[in-house]
Amino acid sequence: MAGMPRLIASKRERITDYALGIIHESLWILGMTLFAFVMAVIAMAVFK
Amino acid sequence: MIVRPRKEDHLVIGKFTGKVIIGVGMLMLIPLAVSIGFREWDTAVDFIVSIAACFVFGFGVQAVCRTAKDLSWSHGLVVASGSWFFATALGALPHFLSGHGGSYLDMLFDVMSGYTTTGLYMLQDLDHVSMGLNMWRHLLTYAGGQGIVVIALTFLFKGTAGAYKVYVGEGKDERLLPNVIQTARAIWLVSLTWLGIGTLFLGVRGLMLGQGPARAFFHALWVFMGAWSTGGFAPQSYNTFWFHDIGYEVICIVIMIAGSFNFALHWAMWTGKRSEIRKNVETISFFVTLSITTMVATFFLAKANVYPDAMSLFRKVFYQLVSGHTTTGFSTIYARAFVTQWGPIGLIATTVAMAIGASACSTGGGIKGIRMGVISKGVLQDIRRMISPESAVVMEKYHHIRDTWLSDDTVRAAMTVTIAYLSLYAIGSVIGVLYGYPLDQAAFEMVSAASNTGLSCGVTNPLMPEVLKITYIFGMWLGRLEFMSVFALIGYGYAVVRGK
Predict the structure, then answer these.
(1) Which chain B residues contact residue A15 at CB under 8 A?
(2) pLDDT at B151 over 70
(3) Whether pLDDT at A9 is above 80
(4) pLDDT tens, B36-50?
(5) Is B314 within 8 Å of A37 when comparing Cβ atoms?
(6) How confident is the model at residue B84 (pLDDT cuts 50, 70, 90)?
(7) Number of cross-chain residue pairs from A and B with Cβ atoms under 8 Å apart
């Protein structure tokens, strides 16, 4: 049944899914912060 | 012809409004417990009086309004906006009884600011407010972020078919799960899980900074509530500037942005659809507008030589802009620094970020990323239509949880709400200008209030004109409920008076 959505997940599977979701969200936010930093450095370099 | 509401309509609206107010009274049990725990007896008495007032109102209205009728759409909208009105009036009691408020209007301002997750405040001597009242302030904003109706749906509206109509009336329209009460519970699961993790990280950082365990825990809890709910309240008058710590600021940035995400996005991420965050029109819109406003503000502030080095400049600019764009309202600069140091371009960049705001169905306010995304796609579609052969069928789609074809109705709906927000921003700014404030400062403050952000450039204070206070209260209320339910309440009042 690969690729099929799990209709009934065990408690452990759900908690693992939640934890991975939170980690993924946090990493995306930190990645975006890094991107914004690079953009800001470029903006400052353009000015100088 | 306007039809005058019948007795049954009043009864059903009264019954469900009473339920929500009982929920507000039950919420006050938490700050009451904190007051008792810290032996703040005066504050405890304030809460006992306030809880009694909520229960007398809530149970009293329910006793009078006995009906088996369920909610219709118009009832749901009126209950949502009416509940917020009464919840504000009664929620201001602990503030007023504490003696930290100049007037009841100031305290109404603070409580509306809390519920709507705005973060502007009039409370005086904030650094010496009791633990119980601080708990109430932050709980208000945390509860308001999820929606006070969502709380009532979770605990008090069991098995009501009309529940979805009140839920929509509060400015949320996503169903995470097929059932609206399950959706409300899923929202709480997401919020409470983040509450545990965020408080832990902030608390550990507080301990590392030298705070005592109790102080570190409560500061972490309150700062989390302020950040997650995009409320912007903090226990000190210097807001998060008080910590002077980059670690605390990074944790706050993660929580503010996570809090500004659509709950449907959280739920998708939590249920295995991890690529959603990269494809969603709201996160893409947020990413683009935050990057542009950061670049513009950085460029001009670098030119003005306000900060000594690149890292300090980025740290200040990015934090204020994330705070503005997520409509949180945390700041690590003095309020007047927006005027005296950042200047017009910095003020405008922050105002634009605040005006756009966060995601729909999140704790945040503003026009919302999805509307910006839909309008941008609509403009692109029109341009493609113009340069395509007449016989070509040009279709555009956008991704929010699933791919959706863009229809003219969707673009029109997004434009309608966007124009309503812009009109609200404009009207409030004009009132500010009429009271003698410069246009850029009046616009900054009104956009901050109506987008439920809470950043201030110094206009908001207890000495400001009362008309301006009332303008901001209405701005916060309209902005948070996204107009329709407040208009429904006004229409309901008009129909009662003039209907036939």
Answers:
(1) none
(2) no
(3) no
(4) 999 999 999 999 999
(5) yes
(6) confident
(7) 81
Between positions 314 and 343 of B, the ones with CB within 8 A of A are 314, 317-318
Which residues of A touch chain B, with CB atoms under 8 Å apart? 5-6, 17-18, 20-22, 24-26, 28-30, 32-33, 35-37, 39-44, 46-48
Query: In angstroms, rounded to a whole number, what is the distance separating the alpha carbons of residues B441 and B434?
Result: 12
Look up the pTM and report it: 0.88
Would you state the pLDDT for residue B213? 94
Chain A CB within 8 Å of residue B345 CB: no
- Number of structural domains found in chain B: 1
B417 touches chain A (CB under 8 A): no
Residue count of chain A = 48
Residue B48 domain boundaries: 1-173+466-500
pLDDT digits (tens, 9 = 90+) for B24-40: 999 999 999 999 999 99
* Chain A residues within 8 A of B283 when measuring between CB atoms: 28
In a domain, B246, yes or no: no
Mean pLDDT of chain B, nearest integer: 88
| pLDDT value for B155 | 59
Question: Which tens digit of pLDDT belongs to each residue from B109-129?
Answer: 999 999 888 999 999 999 999
Look at residue B454 and tell me if it is in a domain. no
Q: What is the ipTM of this complex?
A: 0.83
Q: Is residue B498, in this structure, part of any structural domain at all?
A: yes
Name the percent of chain A in helix, strand, coil, to the closest 5: 75, 0, 25
C-alpha B422/C-alpha B438 separation (Å) is 19
Smallest CA-to-CA distance from B81 within B174, B142, B171, B146 is with B171
Q: Is residue B6 part of a domain?
A: yes
Residue with the two structure tokens 């979805």: B164
Determine the Cα–Cα distance for residues A39 and B291; give it in Å rounded to an integer.
7
B42 with B95: CB under 8 angstroms?
Answer: no
Residue B298: which of A5, A17, A44 has the nearest Cβ? A44
Contact of B253 with chain A, judged by CB distance below 8 Å, is answered with yes
Q: What is the separation, in whole angstroms, between the first and last Cα of chain B?
A: 7
Both structure tokens of B417: 């709400």
Element spanning B397, H or E: strand B397-400
Q: Following DSSP, what letter does each residue of B366-382 receive, concatenated? A: SS-HHHHHHHHHHHHHH
Taking residues B469-482, report their average pLDDT.
Answer: 91
Identity of residue B52: A
Q: For chain B, positions 160-219, list CB contacts with chain A under 8 A.
A: 193-194, 197
